[in-house]
Amino acid sequence: MRKMLLSTCLFLFSFLSFSQSQNIDCENAIVICDKEKITIESLEGFGNVKDDLTGLTCSNGVLKEKNSIWFKWKVDQPGNLMFNISPLKGGDDIDFVVFKVDDDSDACQTMESVRCMASGENLGREEQSKCVGKTGLRKQSSDFNEDTGCHGEDDNFLAPLQTEKGETYLLFINNYSSTTGFELEFAGASEFSNKKCQIEETTKYNLSIGEVFPNPTQEFVNVTLESPMKSNATFTIVDIYGKQLSVKKEKLLEGKQQTKIDVKNLSAGTYFITISTGEESVLRKFIKI
Fold this sequence. Notes:
Layout lengths: L19 H4 L6 E2 L6 E5 L25 E10 L1 E9 L6 E8 L9 E7 L17 E3 L7 E2 L10 E2 L2 E3 L4 E8 L4 E8 L3 E2 L15 E6 L6 E8 L3 E9 L4 E9 L2 E8 L6 E8 L4 E8 L1
Parallel strand pairs: 1-3, 6-8, 7-9
Antiparallel strand pairs: 2-12, 3-11, 3-13, 4-7, 4-10, 4-12, 5-6, 5-11, 14-15, 15-18, 16-17, 16-19, 19-20
């Protein structure tokens, strides 16, 4: 940010009913359940609660939200954890904070800043280019914090996390420059728990849903399913914010069948299909390239 101013299953099933403004507060952080690449096409505003940040170890403890989003994950396998945040507009100034959570049931009130990145635009100085654009955690870095502006050995990257099984983390990402989004890619030995993202694939009616394919895809996805009886089904595509993009209704036959869904008009990114029969709903993720 300028020196003069200061989220494989990705989220909980209930997330689908949230509006975009709700999704980017700490309390409604997007739950990450694996380390697949996440693409956020745009960031618009700061949710319902502005500046819900506490105990920061950079930027004099104050970091202003502008266009932000929150992610959350729980460690299943310990080890080092790194990530790259690559703005879709290359020169954007991206800030981020990683919080370790003390009490998972009250995460936003018990979080502690363990990595804090605030470096970026440094008005009137040429060296600011090294402090904008791609940022994150990488093994070549050893610092835990970078303050506002762009100074000395600042390079827009911080040291990896060393995680332990059962730990919970929050990641706040803020685009100070624009509403354009970013790509988030994780690396390292640490793995995330998927318990909060598991959706039952069958209910008392025993509707069985397979994986969507091809995945990633460019033009269409196929959904395979098996129904124990004739019924009506709704196939709904939503984006990472839960925004409904398309709806397709079909009559299901008894037995195995396949449905083809056109996605060629979607922008590149991460999407979800919900298949609902009125008695049950199942979630599947796919990537549009």
